[in-house]
Amino acid sequence: MANEVCFKNMHLDRPWTLETYQSSGGYSVLKKILREKTPAAEIIDELKTSVLRGRGGAGFPTGLKWSFMRRDEPGQKYIVCNSDEGEPGTCKDRDVLRYNPHALVEGMAIAGYTIGASIGYNYIRGEFWEPYERMEAAIEEAKAAGLLGKDILGSGFDFDLYNHLGAGAYICGEETALLESLEGKKGQPRFKPPFPAGFGLYGKPTTINNTESLASVPEILSQGGKWFVDIGKPSAGGSKLFSVSGHVNKPGNYEIPLGTPFRELLELAGGVRNGRKLKACIVGGSSVPVLPGELIMDVDMDYDALMEAGTLLGSGGVIIMDDTTCMVKVLENLSHFYMSESCGQCTPCREGTGWLARIIHRVEKGQGEMADLDRLEDIAEKVGGNFYKRQGGRTICALGDAASMPVLSFLKHFRKEFEYHIEHKRCMVRS
Amino acid sequence: MSDSTTITIEIDGKSIQVKPGTMLMDIADDNDIFIPRFCYHKKLSVAANCRMCLVEVEKAPKPLPACATPVADGMKVFTKSPLAIAAQKATMEFLLINHPLDCPICDQGGECELQDVAMGYGGDVSQYDEGKRVVNDKDIGPLIETEMTRCIHCTRCVRFGIEIAGLQELGATGRGENMRIGTYIESALESEMSGNVIDLCPVGALTAKPSRYTARAWELTHHDSIAPHDCVGSNIHVHTFRGLANRVVPKNNESINECWLSDRDRFSYQGLLSNHRLRDPMIKVDGEWQETDWNTALEKVRDTIADTKENSGSDQMGFLVSPSATLEEMLLLKKLANGLDVSNIDHRLRQVDFSHQNQQPKFMSLGLPIEALDTIDAMLLVGSNPGKEQPIIAHRLRKAAKNGAEISLINHRDYSLSMPLHCQLTESYTGLVSLLAEVAQSLPGFNATSLPQEAKALFDKAEPGEDSRRIADSLNNKKISAVVIGNQAINSPCYSLIEVFARALAEQTDSTFGYLTEGANSTGACFAGIAPNRKLGGEIEDRSANTTTMLSEPRNLYILHNVEPEYDFADPVVAVETMIKSDCVVCLTPFISDDMKIYADILLPIAPFVETSGSYINIQGKIQSFKGNTPVENTQARPAWKIMRVLGNLLHIDGFEQLSSADVLQEFESELSAIKADNQANITEVCVLDSVDSKLLRSSQVNMYRVDNITRRATALQKTPAGQEDAVHINSNTAAKYNLNNASRVRVKQNSTAVGMPLKIDNSVADNSVWIAAATNVTKKLGPMFGVIELEVD
Ligand SMILES: Cc1cc2nc3c(=O)[nH]c(=O)nc-3n(C[C@H](O)[C@H](O)[C@H](O)COP(=O)(O)O)c2cc1C
Ligand code: SF4
Ligand code: FES
Fold first, then answer.
1. Is A52 in the pocket of ligand 1 (CB under 6 A)?
2. DSSP letter at A201?
3. Rounded to an integer, what distance in angstroms lies between the CA atom of residue B671 and that of residue B660?
4. DSSP secondary structure letters along B333-363
5. Residue nearest to atom 8 of ligand 2 (CA)
6. For residue B775, which of A97, B8, B14, B145 sits 20 to 30 Å off, Cα-Cα?
7. Is the pLDDT of residue B399 over 50?
8. What is the atom index within ligand 3 of the atom nearest the CA of A346?
9. Residue B417 in contact with residue B464, Cβ under 8 Å?
10. Which of A219, A252, A251 is CA-nearest to residue A238?
11. Peptide bond into A193 cis (omega under 30)
12. How far does A98 lie from chain B, in Å, by closest CA?
């Protein structure tokens, strides 16, 4: 079963319009909640039943996150949507914004109602111009229909929603850096505690969720938490969007139930390009450990199974690499990314990501030495801990961990290729 | 102290009772457990970015930063476990890979936190083999040198700007390895406290420009002292190199300057090294200056004094004394004056309204401890720009304002104080009194019956606006409130009226009344009786003489102590003319100048601050003594108190047997310990307001880097934007009214004087007011700080 939640309307004509959205029951949940004044606790319980886990990468249970907000305490509160989607390999939120913007508007309004926030911000990745326009249009439509603004449908509930376009920094996807950026400051993660639920945007209680998480909420509440959890796994409900990219015949976003075997997803995406052999796969966006083809084929796509297999579900960005891929080159590319995107505030990440990238660059160019490989592992561990030893990183945010996981996993599974580069001063795959 | 509000944690096996929520770092510090750190600073917010303080916490999946980890009950912390040490060493390795390791040519070498911590946590051989980062230096002004390749990105300097100075001038731009600390657009720092970033910078990225490359840290000798330029009395360490002052850094004193120092106090020492130092006693013989020895010079002074007393009478002698002279010097001068029957002695050199001088309190003080400003709820400051006059006071008020205190100002100009203000009202110097009358009017139930006639008339006329009401409400409703009058109020021609209203407002709103005075020792001057109407000990007697009367009828003999008439008086032109008309002017001075050569007749070289011992009484009434260091080489300069002692003996006056400056104070020990700085006074005598309606009025503030003879010679301070300030400021209304909209220079006329100056249209200035700094090289040729003025296109 596919396309039941965020991509539910994908087959309809112009699914981004209010008309289409409403034709399939859109905004009925919001209206019902406002009409019946559904207690917030009831909504949170339903979400808990659904076992919706955050789709931004960390997989934190959304119902639990919402319950941290003291909705009845006086003072401004905010709901913020993280549409910064910068994780390499991931482009699912882009399509939620393009094809189902009203689900996000409705989801954010429901979130606002539940946590007591009368203002919402949707922080959109700087390069997402088309999605931004779709979102702007959706907000205008919703406003005109009285579904946003003051005293929505006479319920007494006020909710204003604004889009904010980022300026191209990956780090602004980290939730507290996102808040800093929204406040007009340099996008740098904050040290936690305090957490956003206590001290968030402009110092006020704030909930931050991923686009897909929020856009899933209306359908969950419409069909019930039980329905949602039954689609997926008891430990992670629902279907989820996976962005399949790389060496496949039909790259794209696929909504499939959590727990679907990897093999089926690969088939949906048309299989490996040119019928070649699957060499490796990064299943959860560039920050999670890589797995060799033979280790991933039979794994189910859910949090627990992937963890057991030695990787993470992350943001669901599935990067497929066939046997023509040079793993050294891939790691060089990834490490360059983390070097450029480190915000620069904490020492290990600022200094370590550049060091890693430079060594890998040398190795790729055939200018490395064997000791470089141990050194890479040593540096990676000093920046971001060691996933395999279950040791956390030493930095303010998880970018440090994200930068070190590829290094450790590439060396764990493909060390021979690196050694070949050093020994023969050329690539094993492409020579 | 084990009770329900404390919890127990364990650090390195030691069980400690702590308040929940405290950060691990603070607890470790209190218990002498050392955790390395760079970004942490006790006065700044927690940034947790350097990662040097990582420690192991039981059950935590990763090492945690001690500076940002609040304690929880039962927490077990290991600061020196293998995991903790490995994490700390890893951070050290990262900090060093791109650091230039140029310690041998780095000014910070020997007192560098990175160097120190690297000794403990750094490796001896680096496994880093790549090219190192190089960062272009920024020119951030004459006080601070940058060497940004050394920067370790701790952001202490950035947080200082935002949190302490209230003015963000430094910030971080760029990501990752390209993160840079700088001003973004190249500009000199303008905060009056900017030099503190030198102390805050743990490495040699920000160092003191004036002392750069002059000495290594370990070659310097440290002397404790007290800063001599404002009434705060910041505690300092003077670092000397081969006997010469090489730099000044703050000495921590939580109740005064904490760990901060104003730029003026930090860099003024350069004045001591000026080549205008007076090396030998000098006398003018037939219009020619001659160097001489001390005996000859002092005998000459004695003879002149004795001669004047005998032939012209004591009233023909005048003593004019710097308000920053030491207490000991002041006491001996007063004794000399008493011994000679001279009542003409004064330190209130820039004051012009003395109407209420006989009703003023015995001691002038802030009325509350400096520290108490932090927790004040409301304050009305009148005629004051503390940021430029007493920077530490401004810092304390900024702290209060950040915690919600309502700080209001009534001034001649809208001063930017880098803090949220409740209200700032501006008016010309006469209008300022009317503003005070309006605030009084707005106060419900204000009792005007006790006001002197002149004040009552203003009160009756007042038509309060919304802002006066807000100020009145703020004083009335807030719990701890104060009304304080500052330097510009004291120097105003309406001083007495300002004080009457300020006192009435304070009294009727249950607020404290206080002063912020000029120089480092105005309170000491009250005590020593450095005013014609004050006795030794401070007691007031009814006298009408004062600085103005002393100058308006030129005396035969003036003794100037640490004073330069061309800069230090309300009306420099009158002061200099008077000196020239006098038969003899004796200057006790560390410096010689061309002006001085014209009006003076005998010059006695005295040892200035740093080189002499002494004491100041600061604005909260605290006596702070300091030791002296040897005077600079090649000078005959002597501590002034010694010169006065010799003079006393030469003149056969009793009471000059002191062997040390401490002996001078000894005599007054009991009186000094009884100083009660309560500002009690009942003022009924006030000035009569001149009719200046519709005239253009000058108001002014002494340029912050020209307040005394030392700062005026501090070269780096002179090069700062503030030091260069020399323009006529008027607002656009005034400019329009006088057709000056397009003028870039104006001719300024005051009394019989006229100078040409650049014109700045500046809407911070009140209507019909002209704001011109005092004590500059241009304005020394201009009339009084406050008064009628004319402008025309130059
Ligand atoms: C370096 C970094 C980048 C991140 N980028 C994104 C992003 O682009 N989009 C996103 O939703 N979450 C991103 N996250 C995760 C967010 O911090 C946060 O966990 C998430 O927005 C929470 O939403 P959820 O609970 O709905 O998943 C990023 C985290 C890190 C450390
Ligand atoms: S880990 Fe990197 S990106 Fe995250 S806060 Fe630290 S320096 Fe910035
Ligand atoms: S001192 Fe704790 S992270 Fe810098």
1. no
2. G
3. 19
4. HHHHHHHTT---EES-TT----TTGGGS-SS
5. A343
6. B145
7. yes
8. 3
9. no
10. A219
11. yes
12. 30
Q: What is the Cα gyration radius of chain A?
A: 22
pLDDT tens-place string over residues B430-476: 999 999 999 999 999 999 999 999 999 999 999 999 999 999 999 99
**Around Cβ B790, how many Cβ atoms within 10 Å?**
15
Q: What backbone torsions phi and psi does residue B288 show, to the nearest 5 degrees?
A: -110, 135
CA distance B325 to A217: 75
Whether the per-residue pLDDT at A1 is higher than 60: the answer is no
Which of B38, B89, B135, B175 to mutate: most A Cβ within 10 Å? Answer: B175
Using CB atoms within 10 Å of the CB of residue A195, give its burial: 0 to 12 exposed, 13 to 18 middle, 19+ buried.
Answer: middle
**Which bound ligand lies closest to the C-alpha atom of B39?**
3
- Whether ligand 1 lies within 6 angstroms of the CB of A55 is answered as yes
Q: Do A390 and B176 touch (CB under 8 A)?
A: no
Q: What would the mean pLDDT of B141-151 be, rounded to a whole number?
A: 97
Note the pTM of the prediction, 2 decimals: 0.95
Cis, peptide link before residue B784, omega less than 30° from 0: no
Helices A327-341 & A399-424 angle (0-180, nearest 10):
140
Distances (CA, A) of B466 to B402, B412, B471, B502: 23, 19, 9, 19
Q: How many CA atoms lie within 13 A of B669 on its CB side?
A: 5
Nearest in space to B309 (alpha carbons), one of B567, B589, B583, B17: B583
For residue B767, the surrounding DSSP H or E stretch is none
What is the 8-class DSSP label of residue B165?
I
- For residue A111, the one-letter residue type is A
- Residue B2: pLDDT band by 50, 70, 90 thresholds? very low
- Strands lying side by side in the sheet with B235-241: B221-226, B235-241, B244-250
Q: What is the C-alpha radius of gyration for chain B, rounded to an integer number of angstroms?
A: 28
State the closest ligand 1 atom to the C-alpha of A65, by its place in the atom list counted from 1: 25
Residue whose pair of structure tokens reads 């390195």 in the numeric block:
B12
